[in-house]
Design a protein that fits this description.
298 residues, mainly beta, Porin, 12-stranded antiparallel barrel, two-stranded parallel sheet, globular
Length: 298
């Protein structure tokens, strides 16, 4: 039942534009929700995210693998386009009779839907000059999930889903803070069933003591609230679903070579209230590699 939620969280994209001398890289500050916050003119990435929910018969572990890439088509326009293809391996103690559908759980490996994301970044240039950090910015993003996967329905037979998001950051020398929010809109399938819409809001701080062209080390901590609306079956909300939780996400980002960044994180719930034990979060973790490239001087 939680496979789609985990896959969705793992592929929300913020593809920012333009690089600079000093940045607070937020690749995984809030776990998978911001794991693709790539601050470059283009990138390719591969990542893995694990989420465990429930106990006993309701135990469900999902491992989401992501292959993605993005580019800013025009040098002087801070707009980017990103493509994300996730794959999910789900291990459930009690799979549903049918492994296909928005509310299904399974012991299976499946291709998730392709996501196309578009983002626009606004630079706070006055603050960037005054505080010697170009991590002062605001970013808006919208994404469309195409029904190309085989997890919830036969390819090209499922519904379209939508994601809207925003991020703003403030940086001063090696310190930075970022605020992030997103909301996912799930559409009903042909049987009028769907996972409940879900949203996320978080605040994070980062300390980047080393940031050169050849080496970067950044220590980060994100605290966030995540909520899930009730699932729907046959057009009727399911009363014992939905809820909220608070998460803390310590994160490490480092760069061993120019253009390459690696990250790892753990997300732990410190408060949660779900109507069903099957939705209770236990822990999340992830790691990834991002290779960024720039066009160079005009």
């Amino acid at each position: 039942m939680a496979a789609k939620r985990a896959a969705t969280a793992a592929v929300v994209v913020f593809a920012a534009c333009w690089s600079g001398e000093t940045r607070a890289h937020h690749e995984a500050l809030f776990g998978p929700q911001s794991s693709l916050a790539v601050e470059s003119e283009g990138f390719v990435s591969t990542q893995m995210h694990v989420k465990v929910i429930g106990r006993g018969e309701s135990y469900d572990r999902e491992t989401v693998y992501i292959v993605s890439g993005g580019i800013s088509p025009w040098r002087k326009v801070p707009w980017s386009v990103t493509l994300i293809q996730p794959f999910t391996y789900e291990a459930a103690h009690a799979p549903t009779a049918s492994s296909v559908g928005p509310l299904a759980t399974c012991d299976c490996f499946a291709r998730e839907n392709l996501i196309v994301s578009s983002a626009y970044r606004l630079e706070f240039k006055g603050l960037q000059r005054a505080w010697d950090n170009d991590g002062n910015f605001a970013l808006l993003s919208a994404a469309l999930e195409l029904p190309t996967g085989n997890k919830e329905a036969e390819p090209l037979h499922g519904p379209f889903n939508y994601i809207v998001a925003g991020m703003t950051g403030f940086g001063w020398h090696s310190l930075a803070a970022v605020i992030l929010g997103y909301y996912r809109i799930n559409s009903s399938d042909g049987a009028r069933s769907k996972k409940g819409n879900n949203g996320f809001a978080g605040l994070g701080v980062t300390y980047t003591p080393i940031d050169t062209s050849d080496l970067l080390i950044s220590v980060q901590l994100g605290v966030a609230a995540e909520f899930h609306e009730k699932d729907v079956f046959g057009g009727v909300p399911i009363d014992d679903t939905g809820g909220w939780e608070l998460l803390a996400s310590p994160t490490l980002v480092w760069s061993p070579a120019k253009g390459m960044r690696l990250f790892t994180y753990v997300s732990l719930p410190f408060a949660q209230d779900y109507r069903s034990p099957a939705q209770e979060d236990r822990w999340r973790a992830g790691l990834g590699i991002i290779y960024s490239f720039e066009r160079g001087a005009p």
